[in-house]
Q: What sequence folds into this?
């Protein structure tokens, strides 16, 4: 937690609340768009019975999303919103997993997942690194991956790359 | 599942929370990758899982809980099948409202749904009134 003076903290809180409000409206609008697309798509269904459920769900989605927008306008949420400070860790974790998908066809799942684990370990490490800690974490991660890989490939016969 | 939850879970879950986050986070990441891949042996599924994971995280930050969406994705096809079946039968016997609202089971579900919708609002309101009375 950053040690901020009351004015700066209040300003940051206000900015977060405003961003949260805007974000909620954007997400609700996206859900409305998804509902409208569903309604448009189901209009071409020839079977009347088949279109009732998706149309009902889409209408409910539109209605409740509109209510969520209305609530944000009338009574804005002051909590939630994306806090700053650990963005790079989250981004690094997702990027490392995407990297695993990219290299998996060339290196196989085992190597790709070990690389992902190491990058994820670096991204989620908040404490001070020591040589002993690094070795233990790395070896425990590799053993977990190898065990699961063996389980899936040789016991459950999943055709892993 | 009950024996696992009661016997193994009692000890296993306790030890899981003691594992350092730095190891737990990439391990969960690995398990999501291998679990998603194993369903259809498709890397595209893993990419979709990641994209939906980020989407779920983003919307949860803006007050939209991801749990009902996941529940809807799992129960949606079952609900749709039941809905269409009831709709078809109702239309065939010319009693559509009776098919959805006239059966004892559906009436019980409707009542419980209404209770679950109204009860939190009612309790909140009751606490507010109680708080106002105590302050006055």
A:
């Amino acid at each position: 937690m950053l040690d901020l003076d009351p004015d700066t903290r209040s300003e940051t809180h206000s900015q977060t609340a405003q961003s949260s409000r805007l974000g909620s409206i954007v997400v609700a609008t996206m859900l409305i768009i998804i509902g409208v697309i569903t309604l448009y798509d189901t209009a071409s269904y020839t079977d009347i019975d088949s279109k009732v459920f998706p149309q009902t769900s889409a209408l409910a989605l539109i209605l409740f999303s509109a209510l969520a927008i209305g609530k944000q306008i009338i009574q804005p949420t002051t909590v939630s919103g994306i806090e700053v400070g650990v963005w790079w860790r989250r981004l690094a974790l997702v990027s490392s997993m995407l990297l695993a998908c990219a290299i998996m066809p060339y290196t196989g799942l085992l190597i790709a997942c070990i690389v992902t684990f190491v990058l994820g370990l670096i991204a989620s490490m908040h404490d001070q690194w020591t040589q002993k800690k690094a070795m233990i974490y790395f070896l425990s991660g590799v053993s977990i991956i190898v065990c699961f890989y063996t389980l899936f490939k040789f016991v459950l016969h999943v055709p892993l790359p | 599942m009950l024996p696992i939850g009661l016997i193994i879970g009692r000890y296993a879950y306790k030890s899981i929370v003691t594992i350092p986050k730095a190891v737990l986070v990439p391990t969960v990441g690995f398990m999501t990758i291998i679990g998603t891949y194993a369903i259809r042996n498709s890397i595209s599924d893993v990419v979709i899982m990641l994209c939906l994971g980020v989407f779920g995280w983003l919307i949860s930050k803006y007050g939209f809980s991801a749990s009902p969406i996941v529940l809807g994705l799992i129960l949606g096809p079952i609900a749709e099948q039941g809905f269409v079946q009831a709709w078809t039968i109702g239309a065939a016997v010319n009693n559509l409202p009776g098919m959805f609202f006239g059966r004892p089971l559906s009436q019980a579900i409707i009542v419980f749904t209404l209770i679950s919708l109204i009860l939190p609002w009612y309790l909140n309101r009751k606490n507010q009134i109680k708080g106002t009375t105590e302050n006055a």
Q: What stands out?
A: Residues 110 and 116 of chain B are 10 Å apart (CA to CA). The two ends of chain B are 51 Å apart (CA to CA). Chain B touches chain A at residues 20-23, 25-27, 29-34, 37-38, 41, 43, 46-47, 50, 53-54, 57-59, 61-64, 76, 79-80, 83-84, 87-88, 91 (CB under 8 Å).
